[in-house]
Amino acid sequence: MIGLFIALGVVVLLVVVFIGIYNGLVGLRNQVKNAWAQIDVQLKRRYDLIPNLVETVKGFAKHEREVFEKVTQARAAAQGAAGAGPAERSQAEGGLSQALGRLIAVAEAYPQLKANQNFLSLQEELTSTENRISFSRQFYNDSVLRYNNKTQMFPSNVIAGIAGFKPGEFFEVTSPEEKNPVKVSFN
Fold first, then answer.
1. Sign of the dihedral defined by the CA atoms of residues 176, 177, 182, 183, in that order
2. pTM (predicted TM-score)
3. Which helix (H) or strand (E) holds 78?
């Protein structure tokens, strides 16, 4: 009889451990999803600011049409990658960051624009948004790291394998151009 209680106790303990680990994995997976959603929130903010910034610069730099078109195209490409995974999204966002860098470089060539309050305000908002995007990406990657560690370490890797938990994908800069600073030239 005591042997039966011990066996039953061991089974109950294993079930409790399984449930605890499974719930921990679900929580971490949901944290990764939330972190990805937070990146989307900041990118939406960025997308909303860009047309205002472009229109403000357009008023001063009418002959810089190519730069405006590239920013608009890059914004559309980045928005089009909204449902893609981190690798594709990172590439599209990198193109947008480069185009924005060129737009800011154009703006630097116009002293009257640099003194314009609307432009200064929009530039500050964009800088703040870029910082938030960077923080959100870092938080997302930290969340993926915690989740991946949990799904790959024993004993939770056994439960993750049984329950079908897949590793998360990091948000990484993939193209070499994105790793280089934007060149600003006034020639």
1. positive
2. 0.75
3. helix 65-80
Nearest to 145 by CA among 171, 173, 179: 171
- Asked whether the beta carbons of 74 and 43 are under 8 A apart, the reply is no
Cα 122 from Cα 44, distance rounded (Å): 15
pLDDT digits (tens, 9 = 90+) for 13-47: 999 999 999 999 999 999 999 999 999 899 899 88
The CATH architecture of the domain made up of 24-179 is Up-down Bundle (1.20)
- State the maximum Cα–Cα separation within the chain, in Å, rounded to a whole number: 91
- CA 117/CA 53 separation, integer angstroms: 12
Whether 113 contacts 60, CB under 8 Å: yes
Tokens 């472009």 correspond to 54
Token code pair at residue 34: 């939330």
